[in-house]
Amino acid sequence: xxxxxxxxxxxxSTGRLERTEATLVDRYAHLVxxxxxxxxxELGRHRKVLVAQAxxxxxxxxxxxxxxxxxxxxxxxxxxxxxxxARVLRSALAYDRRPRGWPARVPPPRALRPxxxxxxxxxxxxxxxxxxxxxxxxxxxxxPPAARAVLALRCGDDMPDERVRELLLAVGEKDPDAxxxxxxxxxxxxxxDARTLLGSAEFDACSVRTRPxxxxxxxxxxxxxxxxxxxxxxxxxxxxxxxxxxPPEDARTRPVRAPRVTPAxxxxxxxxxxxxxxxxxxxxxxARGGRTDDDALLTRALDTWAAPxxxxxxxxxxxxxxxxxxxxxxxxxxxxxDGRAVVLLHDSDxxxxxxxxxxSPDRPALDVARTDEAxxxxxxxxVVARHDGxxxxxxxxxxxxxxxxxxxxxDTPGRxxxxxxxxxxxxxxxxxxxxxxxxxxxxxxxSSVRIVEKHAFLVxxxxxxxxxxxxxxxxxxxxxxARQPREATGPAALTAWAxxxxxxxxxxxxxxxxxNLWDFAEQDLPERGGRAVWSCIRIxxxxxxxxxxxxxxxxxxxxxxxxxxxxRDRSTAACSRFGQHVVASTAWTTDSxxxxxxxxxxxDIRRLTVTGDARxxxxxxxxxxxxxxxxxxxxxxxxxxxxxxxAVGGPRAP
Length: 654
Known about the structure:
Blueprint: H1 2-8, H2 14-26, H3 28-38, H4 45-57, H5 76-94, E1 122-126, H6 131-141, H7 145-157, H8 161-170, H9 176-190, H10 194-198, E2 208-212, H11 215-239, H12 295-306, E3 313-316, E4 330-337, E5 340-347, E6 350-357, E7 365-370, E8 381-387, E9 390-395, E10 399-406, E11 415-416, E12 428-429, E13 441-447, E14 456-460, E15 468-473, E16 486-487, H13 491-500, E17 512-524, E18 531-541, E19 546-553, E20 564-569, E21 583-589, E22 595-601, E23 605-612, E24 616-619, E25 622-626, E26 633-639, E27 644-646
Parallel strand pairs: 3-7, 15-17
Antiparallel strand pairs: 1-2, 4-5, 5-6, 6-7, 8-9, 9-12, 10-11, 10-13, 13-14, 14-15, 15-16, 17-18, 18-19, 19-20, 21-22, 22-25, 23-24, 23-26, 26-27
């Protein structure tokens, strides 16, 4: 029978195996997340990480890849992807199943479980999330494995329910509809944020933290193991075994320890590099400060970065790896600022600030921030010190002029900001997080003519080491070319930011890279209510995902009257170069008390449609229609090419 089975199932071709392997590598993180969420929670986070990695790494077949593909999808890369998803899901669902007749309290035999990656002396766990992620994790722990898998496929892989049902049937799930319903029960309490929550670090088994195991217990076990090995070796010598010697240990299986980085390994960029390079970022910064030759200080900074001692205040920005430095790290600054010794280092895609008190018993502090693909504006300054509600910056060497200004006072010119020869600025007030929003200080910088002639831009402190770059995209009615973001230094940009600047205070400590305000439409309000401007604020993070806020700015008596927040969305490409179409709607009540629903779309929206308790269709990119109180409405736009665009935030009711 086995020989007949081999004849009917020949080995897969090399080409198909290579395509399957390429698909596995491309979808590796998604497959690991699916396995991690599906595996039994009783395993614990460390073992679940290892098992999930093992299931995916062992997914490549020895049998023909087509043997287990869902029948409905049998061609191209989609077939390999479906087959891999089925293979991983089947293994994850079957991980804790016992053979028929196996005792309930006895775990399945090891032969039924995959061999794990070998990790000695470390505990691997995904990065901890916030309260919402922890609440979802607890809900998942009490759900059936198939329901957890459905939620991962729906929210993590954007897989439609029909494909999910096919996949469940392909792996032998008897009641896929029940699993779909159970997954919906899990998703309902989290609302539309389930996709964001499952994409967070809490459920990312490919981005993990390492911690040592119980060191004392491990020491005892090592001593006991050495004693057993010695006794065994003696017994082996006395027995004089005639078996041939085994192969030498493979060096690749030995644990690798990162080489220690010393001050001698640090890269010191020359002072003139920034003016003669096409890569204007942190790699072009020279080493500045009065203690760049203080090897003792630099050694403490590097050793703390490599292994922070107990008591060190360590702060890691969102999605930033807290791994030791490499020998290519750049020294940016070393000196004394506001009573602390400060060292700034740059390593590939990270910036690290080490600080220690000069004359007090306070502990040292270590801050790590992500800075990949930084440029002229996003590498223009670093926070070198915080003290008494103010911040000092270390300006980039290409900054020729620095000023401070208040976004809530658009007509007030900027004030010059003194900068030392090393690039350290005077203290700048930070935006407050509580109380009334009475001012929002920003830094206005101008780059040298050797970089960009007369190029001024705004940055502001939103927590972390890197200030956020503020941009502005003018309204189509201004005659500006489509999709051309500009610096937020002109009169129109400052006027727009004055109405929405206070929204920046809620973005602190979230790893924000840049914030752009886009005036995407203008609309005449009903009953001669004046002209309003629709804007979309995009908050881009160093980690990649971006959030948006849609505001409506009706006519106001003051230049700083807050705009109305009408919609928001998280982890979206909208209002960026990759999401150029946007539609939004909101309720509006006129001075006479009549209620309307307002809608507007970006430049390429040619028609707007309202459905629900009120119905209307209007050619163009703005619409206003009467609607009763509490009406359930849905607004969509259509582009000239026929694409349908839903309003941000879903249905809106007046």
